[in-house]
């Protein structure tokens, strides 16, 4: 949950004055306009070109283009580099322009909301109406509601859909909606509010944050204190960084190595040229005279740069274009995937970033939010135990438990109760029958639920009740009581009206003993009219209530405990209900002592706690409730699948510890059979260190093992990696936010990481947005693993931006996380398809593409290298210039794109069936430095065959008619034809999944090569462009000879056979997991979709299922006369002499906001 804390990033103190723009403008505060775009119409071209030429490869090709314009150096025409370079720059520019146009549209939409929000300045007073979006950080001044309260929904910020309450100061609230008073208001804000010389303290309860939505409040007025980029929402969003995949980083290193290799080859050629010129060159000067002033040394120097041009294809510019196209295509697959489409909200999956696809196949750590990501943020009354009997489960005729979701048409019919909530669903008929039969325990059970709470009813039309619950748990319990015949109808500060089985009954509310995190229980004392029977109703944690039960409840307590263990084992949130009949004389005495304690100046809280302890004892047990924090569909199965793929999932949530633990068990992340679940909740650095130092393996060293190394471009980046340690058994770790703050300090962070990585499950609760990002950064830094963060609210944005991959859940919780994410979809369960199918395929395709691309280009280039030894190192090309230009752009572009867009080792069902197929990507096995060296060695072998076999075959060879065939042009044609055939055969060997498109691309490219070759070498082209097409007649004169085709066949055979033999031996002796799986696929039928499994019944034997999202202080609020504005039904001496809450008088309050908040505020 977001901490609402003032912080000042660049200023010591913010000083502003209401309704005084000149004064506020002097401080140069940011206005409320949002700008996320990078370019405008004038800056696009220069800035975009500057960014593109910052890429090493683009700058390199620009340098090559300049070299080719120098006649003394260039042996190739300028268009061989210019055409590909312009194409690459144009495609990238169009893509960048499209992205920025979308950002401009988004900015315009935000800035031009109602009343032109972009024109709002700090110090302005603005009016908000019901359901309006708060688009600046405001100090609340007044509202339409009693006590100057407003209700806000913070779904955009934290994913919570239950309403939070904010309250204005009385001094500003008295202005109401009087425009003249508001316009004349000149209060100054300087950490405090100064009005007419009086200073008033400000806190977070008086601030409305950008991203909230006003609910159930007709209007309110607020003073703008932070605008635009200074707002809490924008500050917490973190810095946007340009994300690049690990393959991108590796390619940068490889390109640098290739540059070094290219320079060494060119140096060898230059030295060889100098030697040749001295020894052999003088012989040729008779008919090839040197240019004036050119000696052997200068010739060698020029030869170096000429070979830089000739051999530049080892770094092909088309590589980058092809990579972008492949990523774009794989992104479209995600957008078009119907199995990731959520029809309920009409929400498809979306790849918002098109440059990170293959990284999805390498994820090792997933960091997930809880509320709205794993859960639906919906509480449902699931089961209950009343007087020792359990309700809520269904059994078939054989006595086997039936999963509720499998039941069709078995919902209970509540037509007998005209006040029932039509959306409430329950299946067990026996509970309704028990209540309607008049069972006293069952009726007392639901009577307690209808009375012991702080819910506010709203009845706009007769019979149409709407409950406003500060806690979603309470809303679920009161709704359950409503449907089973005990309808909470209305309340005043001193009474609660309940319709019990059709009969209206009014209870005098004598006291509310409010909930807090220490008491873990709540009680109300009520007197039923007109009987005058006094009863204390109590609900709370089983561990707390059991200590206060009367000894006569021991037998019932044992039965109820069995039920509680079942509920806890199923991950349900439990509460125990109890009551106590009170004596009137005792109650009168207790009230007097309570009044004395509540008005005491010293030790007030301690004295009140003693009184609460005194009255809340010898309780009679009624039963227990089990509420389900409803998970999204398929969450446990998804987590199980991802765990099988060796992906570790950490949950980072702002919820309290009990709630987070409960969800952990619901999702099967925490299990009863785990050897231990460690709780880290110490409040000191020493305590945290002691709790983190757990012995999970007897042989484990005392300190974490850290390996230091160097990586990155020029090996300048220092890396530190914490080694994984073997663990004896399965463990879980739960750490609190205040403990995490100590653990993230420099001297403890390695201990935290070491302990966390040895645990199978890690849950961090009560964490701030900053802490979420810090945890992600810690794992990124010391594990050198690919991370993914998934969330749904603005408090997840910093985590999403910090991780390698950010995924946003798009749904009812808002769009802040989605707007900052790289990928988005509507349900958590789609994550397994994103990773195990799309991510794995993208990684495999990209690795296969890079291996093949480097192979075909190194092979192409090495043939030039061998030819240099036969042309006097003169930088003459072995191929036709047009073949060099079109080789990467036309002849070999489409076949490799076809493989890289459509290839798959196994289909999606097999990918789900065997998640272990995902693990090679985590280890980066398919493309690394070793794989690159193997590509170079393979290319070297192929180039030797491709040069020397055609050379030997053509040497001293004659045509059928006896004429000589061994000329340069015929050799060039034969060499390039052999090369093209061999690289296409290699591509066919690499392709596992053939489609019609692949076939068309392969055969079409070969056909295009022969068609273009015959056209370019024709008489007509020579006559039109004599200098551009000198190879006249070469194709028809060479390709009609049988020995030429035999040479092509022999070359292809010698290049291919060793590869096939080597792969066969590898598969037989050292098969990979993919090899094993493809073998299995050929033998077995396609697996059927996994059937829905009935969850296994788990019994918890060592933990409480208690989890209750309630905050202290709401009891005072709902008993305030001014808050409810209703007269009591009966005049009676109230328990409290002052019934107005501290809220009404702006006195110091002993509680914070109604929302759940971390126990210690930490600056984000």
Automatic annotation (TrEMBL):
Domain P-type ATPase C-terminal: residue ranges: 818-1072
Record GO terms (molecular function): ATP binding; ATP hydrolysis activity; ATPase-coupled intramembrane lipid transporter activity; magnesium ion binding
Compartment annotation: Membrane
Chain positions recorded as ATP binding sites: 369-371, 474, 515, 539, 573, 653-655, 766, 772, 795-796
GO cellular component terms attached to this protein's record: plasma membrane; trans-Golgi network
Cofactor(s) the protein requires to work: Mg(2+)
Regions crossing the membrane: 76-94, 253-276, 296-321, 849-870, 882-902, 931-951, 971-989, 1001-1025, 1045-1070
Span of domain P-type ATPase N-terminal: 17-81
Stretch list, region Disordered: 1140-1164
Keyword Translocase applies: yes
Biased composition (Polar residues): 1140-1150
Bilayer topology: Multi-pass membrane protein
One of the protein's GO biological processes: Golgi organization
Active site: 369
A Pfam family assignment: PhoLip_ATPase_N
Catalysed reactions, semicolon-separated: ATP + H2O + phospholipidSide 1 = ADP + phosphate + phospholipidSide 2
Keywords: ATP-binding, Magnesium, Membrane, Metal-binding, Nucleotide-binding, Translocase, Transmembrane, Transmembrane helix
NAD recorded as keyword: no
Record-stated family: Belongs to the cation transport ATPase (P-type) (TC 3.A.3) family. Type IV subfamily.
Name this protein carries in UniProt: Phospholipid-transporting ATPase
Organism: Lates calcarifer (Barramundi)
Organism lineage string: Eukaryota, Metazoa, Chordata, Craniata, Vertebrata
């Amino acid at each position: 949950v977001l901490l609402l804390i003032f912080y000042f990033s660049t200023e010591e103190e913010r000083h502003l004055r209401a309704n005084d723009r000149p004064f506020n403008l002097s401080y140069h505060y940011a206005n409320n306009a949002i700008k996320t775009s990078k370019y405008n119409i004038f800056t696009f071209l220069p800035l975009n070109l500057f960014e593109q030429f910052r890429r090493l490869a683009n700058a390199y090709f620009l340098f090559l283009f300049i070299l080719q314009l120098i006649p003394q150096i260039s042996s190739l025409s300028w268009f061989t580099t210019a055409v590909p370079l312009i194409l690459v720059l144009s495609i990238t520019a169009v893509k960048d322009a499209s992205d920025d146009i979308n950002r401009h549209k988004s900015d315009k939409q935000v800035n031009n909301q109602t009343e032109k929000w972009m024109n709002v300045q700090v110090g302005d007073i603005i009016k908000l109406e019901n359901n309006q979006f708060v688009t600046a950080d405001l100090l609340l001044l007044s509202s339409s509601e009693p006590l100057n309260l407003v209700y806000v929904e913070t779904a955009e910020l934290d994913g919570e859909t239950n309403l939070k309450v904010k309250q204005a100061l009385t001094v500003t609230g008295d202005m109401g909606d009087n425009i003249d008073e508001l316009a004349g208001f000149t209060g100054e804000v300087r950490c405090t509010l100064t009005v007419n010389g009086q200073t008033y303290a400000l806190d977070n309860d008086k601030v409305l944050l950008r991203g909230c939505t006003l609910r159930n409040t007709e209007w309110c007025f607020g003073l703008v204190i932070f605008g635009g980029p200074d707002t809490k929402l924008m500050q917490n969003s973190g810095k946007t960084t340009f994300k690049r995949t690990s393959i991108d980083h590796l390619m940068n290193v490889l390109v640098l190595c290739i540059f070094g290799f290219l320079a060494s080859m060119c140096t060898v050629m230059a030295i060889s040229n100098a030697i040749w010129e001295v020894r052999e060159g003088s012989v040729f000067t008779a008919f090839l005279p040197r240019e004036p002033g050119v000696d052997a040394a200068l010739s060698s120097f020029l030869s170096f740069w000429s070979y830089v041009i000739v051999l530049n294809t080892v770094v092909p510019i088309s590589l980058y274009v092809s990579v972008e196209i492949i990523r774009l295509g794989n992104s479209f697959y995600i957008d078009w995937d119907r199995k990731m489409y959520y029809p309920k909200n009409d929400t498809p999956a979306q790849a918002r970033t098109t440059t990170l696809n293959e990284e999805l196949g390498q994820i090792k750590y997933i960091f997930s939010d809880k509320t709205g990501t794993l859960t639906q943020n919906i509480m449902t009354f699931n089961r209950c135990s009343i007087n020792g009997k359990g309700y809520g489960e269904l059994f078939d005729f054989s006595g086997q438990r039936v999963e509720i979701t499998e039941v069709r048409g078995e919902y209970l019919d509540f037509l007998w109760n005209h006040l029932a909530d039509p959306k409430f669903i329950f299946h067990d008929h026996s509970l309704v029958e028990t209540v309607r039969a008049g069972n006293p325990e069952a009726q007392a059970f639901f009577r307690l639920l209808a009375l012991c709470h702080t819910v506010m009813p709203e009845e706009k039309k007769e019979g149409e009740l709407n409950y406003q619950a500060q806690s979603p748990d309470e809303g679920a319990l009161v709704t359950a009581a409503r449907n089973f015949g005990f309808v909470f109808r209305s309340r005043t500060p001193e009474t609660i009206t309940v319709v019990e089985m059709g009969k209206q009954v009014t209870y005098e509310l004598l006291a509310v003993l409010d909930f807090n995190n220490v008491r873990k229980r709540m009680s109300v004392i009520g007197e039923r009219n007109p009987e005058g029977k006094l009863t204390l109703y109590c609900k709370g944690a089983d561990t707390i209530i059991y200590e206060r039960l009367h000894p006569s409840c021991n037998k019932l307590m044992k039965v109820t405990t069995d039920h509680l263990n079942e509920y806890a084992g199923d991950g349900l949130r439990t509460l125990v209900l109890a009551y106590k009949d009170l004596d009137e004389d005792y109650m009168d005495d207790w009230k007097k002592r309570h009044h004395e304690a509540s008005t005491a100046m010293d030790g007030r809280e301690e004295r009140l706690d003693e009184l609460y302890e005194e009255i809340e004892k010898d309780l009679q047990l009624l039963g227990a409730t089990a509420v389900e924090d409803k998970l999204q569909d398929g969450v446990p199965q998804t987590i199980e699948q991802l765990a099988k793929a060796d992906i570790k999932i950490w949950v980072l949530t702002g919820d309290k510890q009990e709630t987070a633990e409960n969800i952990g068990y619901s999702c099967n992340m925490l299990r009863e059979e785990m050897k231990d679940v460690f709780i880290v909740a110490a409040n000191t650095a020493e305590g945290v260190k002691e709790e983190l130092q757990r012995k999970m393996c007897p042989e484990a060293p005392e300190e974490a093992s850290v390996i230091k190394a160097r990586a990155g471009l020029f090996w300048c980046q220092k890396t530190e990696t914490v080694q994984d340690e073997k663990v004896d058994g399965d463990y879980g770790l739960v750490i609190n936010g205040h403990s995490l703050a100590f653990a993230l300090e420099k001297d403890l962070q390695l201990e935290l990481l070491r302990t966390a990585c040895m645990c199978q499950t890690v849950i961090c609760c009560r964490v701030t947005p900053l802490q979420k990002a810090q945890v992600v950064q810690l794992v990124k830094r010391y594990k050198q693993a690919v991370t993914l963060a998934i969330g749904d609210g603005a408090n997840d944005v910093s985590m999403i931006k910090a991780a390698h991959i950010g995924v946003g859940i798009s749904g009812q919780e808002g769009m802040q996380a989605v707007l900052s994410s790289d990928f988005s979809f509507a349900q958590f369960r789609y994550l397994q398809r994103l990773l195990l199918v799309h991510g794995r395929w993208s990684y495999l395709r990209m690795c296969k593409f890079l291996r093949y691309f480097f192979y075909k280009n190194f092979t192409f280039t090495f043939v030039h290298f061998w030819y240099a030894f036969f042309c006097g190192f003169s930088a003459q090309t072995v191929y036709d210039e047009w073949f060099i230009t079109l080789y990467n752009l036309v002849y070999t572009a489409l076949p490799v794109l076809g493989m890289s867009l459509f290839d798959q080792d196994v289909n999606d069902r097999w990918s789900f069936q065997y998640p272990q197929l995902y693990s090679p990507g985590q280890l980066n096995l398919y493309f690394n430095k070793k794989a690159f060296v193997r590509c170079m060695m393979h290319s070297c072998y192929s180039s030797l065959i491709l040069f020397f076999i055609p050379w030997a075959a053509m040497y001293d060879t004659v045509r059928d008619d006896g004429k000589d065939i061994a000329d340069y042009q015929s050799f060039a044609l034969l060499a390039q034809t052999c090369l093209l055939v061999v690289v296409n055969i290699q591509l066919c060997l690499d392709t596992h999944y053939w489609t019609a498109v692949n076939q068309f691309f392969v055969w079409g490219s070969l056909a295009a090569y022969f068609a273009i070759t015959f056209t370019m070498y024709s008489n007509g082209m020579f006559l039109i462009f004599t200098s551009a097409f000198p190879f006249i007649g070469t194709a028809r004169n060479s390709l009609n000879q049988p020995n030429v085709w035999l040479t092509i066949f022999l070359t292809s055979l010698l290049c291919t056979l060793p590869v096939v033999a080597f792969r066969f031996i590898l598969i037989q002796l050292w098969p990979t997991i993919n090899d094993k799986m493809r073998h299995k696929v050929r033998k077995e039928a396609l697996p059927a979709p996994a059937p829905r499994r009935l969850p296994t019944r788990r019994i918890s034997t060592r933990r409480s299922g208690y989890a209750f999202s309630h905050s202290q202080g709401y009891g005072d609020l709902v008993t305030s006369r001014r808050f409810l504005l209703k007269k009591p039904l009966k005049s009676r001496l109230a328990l409290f002499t002052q019934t107005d809450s501290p809220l009404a008088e702006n006195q110091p309050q002993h509680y914070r906001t109604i929302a759940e908040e971390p126990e210690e505020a930490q600056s984000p």
